[in-house]
Amino acid sequence: MKTKFLAIMLCACGITATAQQPIYKQASASVEDRIEDLLDRMTLEEKVGQICCPLGWEMYTKVSSDSVTISELFKKQMSAAPLGSYWAVLRADPWTQKTLETGLNPELSAKALNALQKYAVENTRLGIPILFAEECPHGHMAIGTTVFPTSISQASTWNRDLIYQMGKVIGLEARSQGANIGYGPVLDISREPRWSRVEETFGEDPYLTGCLGTAFVQGMQGDDIKDGAHVYSTLKHLAAYGVPRGGHNGNPADIGMRALLNEYLPGFRQAVEEGKAATVMTSYNSIDGIPCTSNSFLIDSLLRKQWGFEGFVYSDLASIDGVAETHHVAVDLQDAAVQSVKAGTDMDLGAKSYSTLVKAVKDGKIEEEYIDRAVANVLRLKFQMGLFENPYVSPERARQVVNCDEHKQLARQVAKEGTVLLKNNGLLPLKKNLKKVAVIGPNADVMYNYLGDYTAPQEREKIVTLLDGIKNKLPKAKVEYVKGCAIRDTTQSNIQAAVEAARKSDVVILAVGGSSARDFKTKYIHTGAATVAKDSGILPDMECGEGFDRATLNLLGDQEKLIKAIAQTGKPLVIVYIAGRPLNMNLAENVSDALLMAWYPGEQGGNGIADVLFGDYNPSGRMPVSVPRNEGQIPVHYSQGVQRDYMDSPGTPLYSFGYGLSYTKFEYSDMKLSAGDGGDVIQYITCTVTNTGKYDGEEVVQLYVNDEVSSIVVPALQLKGFKKIFLKKGESKEVTFALTRKDLSFYNKDLIFTAESGKYNVMIGGASDNLPLKGSFVL
């Protein structure tokens, strides 16, 4: 009886304790009830703090190689008003001045974010945890993480499942170090190769971008955001950022409303509706005179009300400030803040403008309900992730999982599937019994030229260059390396030495292209974009990456001189482009025996390219962008259809969207069309693909649609399906595509999203300019 009484008393005490605990701290309460309870308890200053996201890399102090503590600056910021988010605490690069010595390894990173989180939870009035946001476009931008190929290379894989797996790994590595949000993927449609950020995109096509971007999001976020292995994804950049006027980063996008809706936003819509992306970032540019960060149509009407977005919206770094200081449509930062938060931008990345909102509310310039709306959107993600219950991560786990062997192998897979074979006169695949190989060029053995922008410092031994990869394949051969020249600087050129090495070789592998490698001499503006500085000293290789827009697409420095000199030796010549944007390839196409585009192939890039060169992997990469013959053709994207010739140049690109060679041959036959079953599917299209060559290999089967007569002008050709299939030599497979009503829908002259009746032409093949199978149906 006494035991029973004690049990009743203990139970009653537990009920009382729960009842006394604030609702927002009760895990069993609904998310919306917790939000409402917490909002009611917050001061205006605390609310505004929750929608500010300052820069993060000064928030810790590295004490020793195994110890880290929070900085006094962090304590000062949190005491003023506890902040809702921090960006890039773990970022390391020349802009942040964090090096391998002063930055943090994965284990220390986890300790640092735990310490910051612990202070927020235990030393602030309400104990609200922080959302730590990190850059994650091709790996977590932190020391020691797995560096995957950049997005344009990812897109060249045309492999949804592979990109999903990559997103999953990136999410795991970021979360294990304490991050909650990963910035990426970038869903900007890139049709301006002079623009500095082509490398961050999935290319020129909305369908391919939407499919791969959605897979990336789903991999990063997983099915259960509370599982400690995933992060929230941030879609970048809303909207039309990839077609800036003149190719200048951040310039206005000169497009109409229907082009915006039909060509530049479908990827975002798919990633929101299907991928359930939790956060979105606005862009620096304006559209039709309205800055995107204060554009209520984009953020409120489209994103939230039409697409059903339930997360929160970040500004880009200082893009709210830019509403006043760049676009000049606000009188000051407070006016810019008021416009932006009313439009639906919830979080100020940079935290300069939203710090003025307390006074704006008190002065009657904005109603507090707008602040409450933004704060609720931020708190919702914190509750959904379970941060109030489990705010910390395991440093030991971070040490074990970040850049583990499995992740390195995945990076290698993405690198080789993202390498595109553009030309091959039979030289490739190379034999492994070669005795003498010359490896030449500015991109043959410069590690950071493989990694792209948004990459942290990495240890040399973890990066595999092309020279490393070739030596791995040919341990008994004599492999001679001569740089020949730099990317830009001409004072380093030694072309004669390269020629001599070529003459003594059985085959020459020449790596040229570009670089987004930042160095500590480069200057940066407040947004982190690089500036193009004039310097009388040695020029850095960097000619791409945020802020490095170009007027031409020619190879810089003495690279073309190097190509010509090597070609004149008459030796078998393989040219590999390692670059962040489509560059002029006319000379290389003319003089090479084989030509490959490897983009920025990441930390395992050298192994991935070597796998292709020596036939350990049959190339399956396909171009996600068209390669112009010269800048005068721009824009040259495939969906414009066949363009007539210029007086002085062909109208066609040098290499078209979807193009890429294999070591084997594929034939297409037996196209069949059949009506859908009365549901969402409008039409089934089936064909047979046969491997008629001598090698096993993968083909990317591509389906394109043409709307023969429509109520508005629509693209002449549109990708509406693709499947990557593996075929053994001599094998045939039947491939079926299902065209849905959504696939055929567009925003008509009344801005209604609909599929119109009429005749549709369908084409299937291996590239946008190689479509042997044709048919049609009537809707």
UniProtKB/TrEMBL annotation:
Family annotation (PANTHER family): BETA-XYLOSIDASE, PERIPLASMIC BETA-GLUCOSIDASE-RELATED
Top-level taxon of the source organism: Bacteria
Signal peptide interval: 1-19
InterPro entries, sorted: Cellulose_Degrad_GH3 (IPR051915), Fn3-like (IPR026891), GH (IPR017853), Glyco_hydro_3_C (IPR002772), Glyco_hydro_3_C_sf (IPR036881), Glyco_hydro_3_N (IPR001764), Glyco_hydro_3_N_sf (IPR036962), Ig-like_fold (IPR013783)
Molecular function terms from GO: hydrolase activity
Species in which this protein is naturally found: Phocaeicola acetigenes
Protein name: Glycoside hydrolase family 3 C-terminal domain-containing protein
Gene3D superfamilies the UniProt entry points to: Glycoside hydrolase family 3 C-terminal domain, Glycoside hydrolase, family 3, N-terminal domain, Immunoglobulins
Lineage: Bacteria, Pseudomonadati, Bacteroidota, Bacteroidia, Bacteroidales
Stretches assigned to the Fibronectin type III-like domain: 699-768
Keywords: Hydrolase, Signal
